[in-house]
Amino acid sequence: MITQDLKLSSSVSAENIKHDDSLQKLKKTSAEKEKATENYRKASFTKRHLFTLAATFMLLLGGAFSVYLLQPEFQEMNLGRMNTVGGMILLILTSFLLIFRLSFLAYIAKLFFSYKPVTSVTDEELPTCTVIVPAYNEGKQVYSTLKSLVNSDYPAGKLQLIAIDDGSKDDTWEWMKIAKEELGERVSIYQQPHNQGKRHALYRGFNMGTGEVFVTVDSDSIVQKDTLRNLVSPFVTNQNCGAVAGNVRVLNNEKAIIPRMLNVSFVFSFEFIRSAQSVLGSVLCTPGALAAYRGKAVMNCLPEWINQTFMGQPTDIGEDRAMTNMILKQGYHVLFQRNAYVLTNIPEKFSSLHKMFTRWERSNVRENLMMSKFAFKTFRNGSKSGPRILLINQWMQMLTTYPLFIIMIVLLLLHPVLFISSTLLSILIFSTLPAFFYARKYNISEAFWAYSYSLFYTFGLFWIAPYAMATANRRGWLTRELPKKR
């Protein structure tokens, strides 16, 4: 295993030996990651995984059985509600929200079945492309990212690759220099004078880039050989296309249970939700892990994007959602390419996961407000009902966050057994859709993690949305700590 710190020896010969040894080991590591990329659908199960899944279904089925046994108590509680004004209001509110959610889900499902990814165009048709990789405290992973990009089947003469170290405190810059030495003119590397944040690193790349299309890739991600050409092709076939979202999967899904669960969640979020949004030309967020932007559209909003503020403070999060909003505002369509895969590392521990989700939720609050400023105006030609419906759904989730949170606390205090058992039954029912979706497309056994994730989120992360809304003005990336040594 290569150590995290790359120390330069005073002896030239010793340095060369160590350098060659690092390259050999790194090549072995890269080969292992390529194998993992090819076999990500076939993650194996350990005793810990089987125990977690077994415990999940014992809880969920136990909850369902409890609901059956407690039918008299449920009837008594519901009758009691109907005899009070507050109870009737609660019944009407919950019924309305359930009907709205089911109707919206049916709408998304209809759109999903209309979705088709754009077929890759020929080498001659592909535009010039600048790929920007911002890196901070990524260590040796940045090398694997750059290597996967260089190995793409995109025409080399049309591909410009820029990697920017954002003032890392570890050996990220050293690994970027190793990549530069091995990959030569295929990659250009730069170093920020000090840590300024991902947005500023991307801004530098946008200003240096010469491509007709910009692609941003996180430095902890691996792309497949055909990813770039598939991602960029919609710009050729659709002149209204201003941005394209890639298909994000989990790279480290074999290492821990949290990535295992999120791998299934990501498939539903991207391949179902974003596919439907793409039919409307209104994908709400192009992910930082993999996204493409029409160069002209980026330059039109670049000053506004880099100088964006929220409540009087510079914005240092949500750069991907902000860029998406600003491109939608120009009248462009934002699409999703299901055939443009990227595998990215995600947090393996709860402490890092809830920070990542908090950052995402704060960004959603900010950007929903921004989108509301133009979505109900004539911001583009053609139908605008699709993006408006998507925004209304976002607002429904925000506006009901606190009422539902309060209702949950009250029911938990007054009827703990009834509340928990009915919640477990709801998880069992509503998790079946993402589980079925994943099973149909990939792997039946892995699909069961959808139930574990819903259980984990409902009881472990339910507080994130109300907390993020209350603290939406706070700055900070939250998860930019140094990687642990191995």
Could you explain how this protein is built, in words?
The chain has 486 residues and is α/β, with parallel strands linked by helices. It has a domain at 129-347: Spore Coat Polysaccharide Biosynthesis Protein SpsA, Chain A, CATH 3.90.550.10. Helix content is 58%, strand content 12%. The chain contains 19 helices and 10 strands. The protein has helices at residues 12-38, 47-69, 71-82, 85-112, 141-150, 172-183, 198-208, 227-237, 257-279, 295-306, 319-329, 350-372, 385-399, 401-414, 416-430, 432-441, 444-447, 449-460, 464-470, and strands spanning 129-135, 159-165, 187-191, 213-217, 221-223, 241-250, 290-294, 309-310, 313-314, 333-344. The protein has an 8-stranded mixed β-sheet with strand order 3-2-1-4-7-6-10-5, sandwiched between helices. A hairpin with a 2-residue loop joins β8 and β9. The longest helix is centred in the first third of the chain and has 28 residues, at 85-112. The radius of gyration is 24 Å and the shape is globular. The model is unreliable at 1-19 and 25-40 (pLDDT under 50). It is an enzyme of class 2 (transferase). The chain crosses the membrane at residues 50-69, 89-109, 404-430, 450-470. Keywords: Cell membrane, Glycosyltransferase, Membrane, Transferase, Transmembrane, Transmembrane helix.
Instruction: Output the number of helix runs.
Output: 19
Global shape: globular
> Which band does the percent of strand residues land in?
5-15%
**Spatial strand arrangement across the major sheet:** 3-2-1-4-7-6-10-5
Question: Spans with pLDDT under 50 lasting ≥5 residues?
Answer: 1-19, 25-40
| CATH class (first level) name of the domain at 129-347 | Alpha Beta
CATH topology of the domain at 129-347: Spore Coat Polysaccharide Biosynthesis Protein SpsA, Chain A
Separation of the first and last Cα atoms: 8 Å
